Amino acid sequence: MVQRLLEPGEIESLDHTAIPRLLLPRPGELYAARAERLRQLAQNNIQGIPVDAALASYVNVMAELVQAQADVVKTLLPAGIALPPQDDMRIAHEHNMPPLPVTGKRPAGWRAVFGAILDKLEAKTADQPQLAAALAALRALDDAQLEGAADAVLGEFAEGIDAAQAPFVAAALQVTWSVMAAQLDERWAQPLVTGTLCPVCGSHPVASVIRIGGQSQGYRYLHCAVCASEWHMVRVKCSCCEANSKVAYQGLTDADADPVAENVAAAKEGKILNKANDPTRVARAETCDECHSYRKIFNQEHDYNVDPLADDLASLVLDMLVSELGYARASGNPLLRLGAPE
Q1: DSSP class per residue in 168-237
Q2: Per residue, what are the HEC states of 10-79?
Q3: Is the separation of the CB atoms in 165 and 173 below 8 Å?
């Protein structure tokens, strides 16, 4: 079969918006749904993402932090947070740079967001003395220390911040940038030179997700760790080095499951095995033998309520198994900082 080449006029007439390139965040819904997802994960109620008791305790604390984010977002909307001057965004647009960069000067209001999140968490300290101690230490940070901590979080530096304090600083930065991103006209965000960084703020993705519904059906999106924007990247392409020849998927399989026998039994009955809502496919690690890194991918086709950041945090067992195979994590999770190596 000979493929017909399209003429220039025909190319211009194609619908280039058929695949939504960019999905801007909806912070008014995002954080409340994420907090609920974290609570369900902590209760070990999500099939495909097993959570042990030790991790569940930490996930519960992070659920409280994300709920505080949700409560603070309600106070910020609909007024929002002022965007950078249009001249700055125009220059970024013309040079294929993110319009809301995490580098450079931060919005002055982010420290007020940080304080508001701590205020929301104060009510939870009565039965959580460790949280009370953490909040006291966070409130003791002066402006210079807090800005230095923000630099460490946004730059993913190994040093410069206490590991226990990092999620709280990250939470304020996430709220600030996601609220700004929600106000953005997506036309300001041009594709970057690399598809591995967020076109809105320039941050690394925390994980990727296969979305369902509407024009996004079946497409893979990278989820920004800071502003929560999502951008399209084709499947079977490394989200770290963009190679596509040595990508594989590693997952968690129930020890009692026998997929071969299951398929054989279905075939004998003349049935096609239905893989919808398959817990073994909710969370997987996408590994690359080109750069020897990995990043997790979550599938909404098998769990409608997947949240890339929450599910990534709760699936630490998958991190351990993949790291044992010799792969390095491509980027971190803002709600869990492992600290600098010894």
Answers
A1: HHHHHHHHHHHHHHHHS-GGG-PPPSSTTS-TTT-PPEEEEEE--SGGGTT-EEEEESSS--EEE--SSS
A2: HHHHCCCCCCCCEECCCHHHHHHHHHHHHHHHHCCCCCCCCCCHHHHHHHHHHHHHHHHHHHHHHHHCCC
A3: no
CA 66 to CA 127: how far, in whole Å? 18
Would you call 259 helix, strand, or coil by DSSP? helix
pLDDT tens per residue across span 126-160: 778 888 999 999 999 999 999 999 999 999 887 88
Closest CA to 161 of 176, 141, 175, 178: 141
Q: Which residues pair with 22 in a beta bridge?
A: 231
CA-closest candidate to residue 85, choices 102, 109, 107: 107
Which of the two residues, 18 and 286, has the higher pLDDT score? 286
**Cα–Cα dist 241/233, whole Å:** 12
Higher per-residue confidence, 247 vs 1: 247
8-state DSSP, 251: E
CB 180 within 8 A of CB 83: yes
Q: What is the reported pTM?
A: 0.88
Asked if the model's pLDDT at residue 198 lies above 90, the reply is yes
- Dist. CA 297–CA 39, nearest whole Å: 20
pLDDT in tens, 96-134: 999 999 998 999 899 999 999 999 999 888 778 888 999
Q: What is the mean pLDDT of the chain?
A: 88
Q: What is the reported pLDDT for 335?
A: 96
Q: Residue 307, SS3? A: coil
Burial class (CB in 10 A: 0-12, 13-18, 19+), 235: middle
* Parallel, antiparallel or unpaired: strands 283-288 and 293-299: antiparallel
Q: Of 83, 334, 333, 73, nearest to 189 (Cα)?
A: 83
Q: Tokens 């058929």 sit at which residue?
A: 18
- Domains along the sequence of the chain with CATH: 17-188 (3.90.1670.10), 205-329 (3.90.1670.10)
